[in-house]
Amino acid sequence: MAENSRNGEIHSNLPNFLLSVRLKYVKLGYHYLISNAIYLLIVPILVAIGLHLSTLTLEDLITNLAMLKSYSTLVVFLATLYFMSRPRNVYLIDFACYKPHERYMISKERLVEKLAGIFDEDSLNFQKKILERSGLSDKTYIPVDKWIPSNFSLSSNQHQAKLVIVGAIDNLLAKTGVKIREIGIVIVNSSMFNPTPSLSAMIVNHYKLGVNVITYNLGGMGCSAGLISVDLANRLLQGQANTYALIVSTEVVSAAFYTGKDKSKLIPNMIFRMGASAILLSNRFSDRWRSKYQLMHVVRTHKGADDRAFGCVYQDEEEDGKKGMSLSKDLMAVAGEALKTNITTLGPLVLPMSEQLLFFASLVARNVFKRKIKPYIPDFKMAFEHFCIHAGGRAVLDELQKNLDLSEVLMEPSRMTLYRFGNTSSSSVWYNLAYSEAKGRIKKGDRAWQIGFGSGFKCNSAVWRALRNVDAATEKNAWTDEIEDFPVQIPC
């Protein structure tokens, strides 16, 4: 995602998506809720049968063998139905975010110097203006030694991809103690860089994984692809017992570098930075005790059927052969519509009943009875303790904070991620969560909401519930050695 006209990027503010809600998306949310919760009704029935049988004497049971047989048959049937229809729990054992070596750290001033010999004065000044107002610090990371067009080769991009991917995976394996050959599913998402053999094949080759490992490589799906990978892993784990799934989310920044003069394509040069995350999921019940989180919900929204949404983030090639990613002036409006749809579907799954009743009553009054009343805006702060919003740009975070009525503390992980690491694409929501862990804010039972946006156009959500307190004193992640320096005041 990108900025608004304040930074010369997008010429529209995010619409107030909570003021206009379509009933069909609310119905979709309740459909998900009912579909996933029917099996829970079996438990009260089994309990009622058990309580009734406990009141009967041995003589009653002997004289009512037919009733006992009927009850036994019903219990066996319901128990079988329960275990067959019950979805497998998916646990997040741990995750790791890659922190590049200091040699890749670059200040805004040095970045402008590196670009001076590539762009004309007008293009350079435009990028400098974006950089100054981006909300990024002087400590973000870029592969500086490769950051000139003559070095943008396939081999250099492959080197960069392997550097961040293997770095993230090695950190994850060290944290979890899981042996790499125990992993049965590998999913990699990288939007702009997709070589042959694939990045997932590179992982198999580097770690010498077994021939039975299942691999997937997701490309061209934008900054929300990390949550798409979570959804894919969840679906695969439902059908394969006792399995570990490894998810790697990254972006190779040099593959998205643009050297032309189109200002809408120059924006990514200034906000995207090196980064990667590695996540280890398990459906083994025995892993619950050591896991950090349990996956509760994934809600995906795809607006690609609409031409305006489909074309608002678009890669193309100019007449001189220069490739770039164009950002439409409609991007903010499209993002608002996608987020509105997504949270309307998500609401029934996560909001407390009190909020749902007030929201639903307001919706019915306005849409069914045509009453001119102010719509009730659900308070998502009652559903989540932590908000991990994709750190795509400063203006986007500003607009989401206003529309969701979030405090500075709740926005802190996203703003600090953008400031310290820049826009790391699909991995940014994991840097957000790592920030909250390093601050010691994750407590048992807390719910974290990850929100990602991507080309296509997509908005995706994942909801996690903490299974234990995360001890900041023992936690080691990308923030650990400098967390005491945050939060910082970001200049306007």
Report on the structure:
It is built from 16 helices and 13 strands. Helix 6 (121-132) crosses helix 10 and helix 15 (408-421) packs across helix 16. The protein has helices at residues 23-37, 42-54, 58-63, 65-85, 108-115, 121-132, 154-176, 199-207, 225-239, 263-271, 307-310, 331-350, 353-367, 394-404, 408-421, 428-438, and strands spanning 91-97, 105-106, 140-141, 183-190, 214-218, 244-250, 276-282, 293-302, 313-317, 323-327, 386-389, 447-454, 458-466. It is of the alpha+beta class and 492 residues long. The strands form 3 sheets. A 9-stranded mixed beta sheet has the order 5-4-6-7-1-8-13-12-11, sandwiched between helices. Strands 2-3 form a two-stranded antiparallel ribbon. Strand 9 (313-317) and strand 10 form a beta hairpin. The longest helix is centred in the middle third of the chain and has 23 residues, at 154-176. The protein folds into 2 domains: 38-84, no CATH class; 90-485, Thiolase/Chalcone synthase (Peroxisomal Thiolase, Chain A, domain 1). It comes from Nicotiana tabacum (Common tobacco). Its EC number is 2.3.1.-. One of its GO terms (molecular function) is fatty acid elongase activity. Belongs to the thiolase-like superfamily. Chalcone/stilbene synthases family.
